[in-house]
């Protein structure tokens, strides 16, 4: 209840009135206008149609009363809707709002807000720094991998050239002759080695 009273006091300071008093004022004004309207309408109808007929005048008055009752029902229902809408969407006091009467508390509130803002900024900066360092590390690893791949590609190219050269040599000379030549030379070398061994013995 104390919190509710505090809200009403704060609303009065901010708006110059309480939201409930504002809605009540609209409701009372509408009721007055409705009463006045049907009162005048009853007079006009009585003068135009009753023309001194007591029974007809009574029916006109009863009809006006019924219309007033229906209007009040509609007004009550729509005023309730309007009150809910105004309290939720119009007469809302922001939590951070400080009135001139509360200037004494302004410093502490601003200090708290600044410390929160500074803390969140520090956290964000730290996160960004971590992300940047990760990105730099990934780039370094990528560069090392690129250099390694370039080296492998270079070796593969050299092997390809060497293989092409061997294939070219094989195609130019008869493969059987080449094998025979290698076998003959190998046999000669083996004979020489055997002779050398016997001489040493």
Automatic annotation (TrEMBL):
Q: What is its main location?
A: nucleus
Under the heading InterPro entries, the entry gives: Centromere_Mis12
Protein's cellular compartments: Chromosome, Centromere, Kinetochore
Q: Which GO terms describe its biological process?
A: cell division; kinetochore assembly; mitotic sister chromatid segregation
**GO CC annotations on file:** MIS12/MIND type complex; nucleus
In terms of superkingdom, the source organism counts as Eukaryota
Keywords, sorted A to Z: Cell cycle, Cell division, Centromere, Chromosome, Coiled coil, Kinetochore, Mitosis
Which Pfam family, an example, fits this chain?
Mis12
What PANTHER family does this protein's entry cite?
Answer: PROTEIN MIS12 HOMOLOG
As for family, the record states: Belongs to the mis12 family.
Q: What is this protein called?
A: Protein MIS12 homolog
Lineage runs: Eukaryota, Metazoa, Cnidaria, Anthozoa, Octocorallia
